[in-house]
Amino acid sequence: RILPAWGSAAGPHCVKQRCPLTIPGGTRQSPINIQWRDSVYDPFLKPLKISYDPTTCLHIWNNGYSFLVEFDDSADRSIIVGGPLENQYRLKQFHFHWGAINEWGSEHTVDSKFYPAELHLVHWNAVVYPTFEEAVMEGNGLAVIGVFLKLGAHHEGLQMLVDALPAIKHKDAVIEFDVFDPSCLIPSCPDYWTYAGSLTTPPLTESVTWIIKKQPIEVDENQLEAFRMLLFTSDGEEEKRMVDNFRPLQPLMNRTVRSSFQ
Ligand SMILES: NS(=O)(=O)c1cc(F)ccc1F
Ligand SMILES: [Zn+2]
Asked: For ligand 1, what atom is nearest to the CA of residue 144?
């Protein structure tokens, strides 16, 4: 399976390799700052319905940019529907973005405030498109749920992922991950913002309906530190800690962010 190359977001490694900071003619790039008072309440937005089957979990791996947990998306077993979406979308993977310190790390900001990390649950429109790779190229191809992580209490569900991280320290390391229900990482509050955007790493395609949860989840310092122990680099290469793997904010252009709440 060829996944769209993550490439790299702007970061220290950009010195060595070309990194597209913006794509020419991009009108709906991500991430963006969500200015709470400029978001528009849309009473027609439905509640988001999330039904994940924990046994569709396959493996957890370090792809040299983040760590991701991938799911069996060969059938409609882990799906989301409702919210701003016209079709149901299949869960393919989830991953995180984080900073070297707690002052920054998220990709989206709320009223220009960064969170220390952000979770992305990536889904694709298998009703309309035959493969994920094709959906990545289409305006309504993907739906990504964004969840902010803030420093606070220990997160039991996250700890299962954290315990697996030492085994995937290096780029391309992978371990089997049998059963995991990612809904334990999604806050109970139903409120979200939604807007039309893009992937935040290459190919940066403008194919994502973003659904950003208003309420963050709490994780503790040790759990954030565990993310920062991962490496961008492969075994045997000079070690580069995996931190600051977030893309810079992009212009809002002619977009409105809608809210599901007043
Ligand atoms: N950070 S992201 O959720 O926009 C994203 C998801 C993918 F599946 C591939 C590339 C991406 F950048
Ligand atoms: Zn992401």
From this structure: 3
How many angstroms separate the CA atoms of 25 and 82, rounded? 30
Please name which of 3, 30, 5 lies closest in space to residue 17, comparing C-alpha atoms: 5
The answer, yes or no, to whether ipTM is higher than 0.90 is yes
* pLDDT single digits (tens) 9-62: 445 555 555 665 667 889 999 999 999 999 999 999 999 999 999 999 999 999
pTM equals 0.94
Q: Which ligand is nearest to the CA of 121?
A: 1
| Cβ atoms 236, 172 nearer than 8 A | no
d(CA 183, CA 164): 18
Token representation of residue 156: 């039991």
Ligand 1 centre distance from Cα of residue 97 (Å) = 10
The backbone torsions φ and ψ at residue 142, rounded to the nearest 5 degrees and listed phi first, read -125, 155
**3-state SS, residue 61:** strand
What is the Å distance from ligand 1's center to 200 Cα? 6
Q: Report which of 60, 56, 61 is spatially closest to residue 71, judged by C-alpha positions.
A: 56
Tally of CB atoms within 10 A around 83 = 20
Q: Is the CB of 148 under 6 A from ligand 1?
A: no
Kindly state if the Cβ of 63 falls inside 6 Å of ligand 1.
Answer: no
- CA 20 → CA 10, 23, 112, 205, 243, distances in Å? 8, 6, 23, 12, 19
Q: Among 201, 94, 243, which residue's Cα sits nearest to residue 158?
A: 94
The Cα–Cα gap between 123 and 94 comes to 9
Which of the 8 DSSP states describes residue 160?
A: H
- Dig out the tokens for 246 from the structure: 């977030």
The DSSP output letter for 161 is: H
Residue 18 identity: R
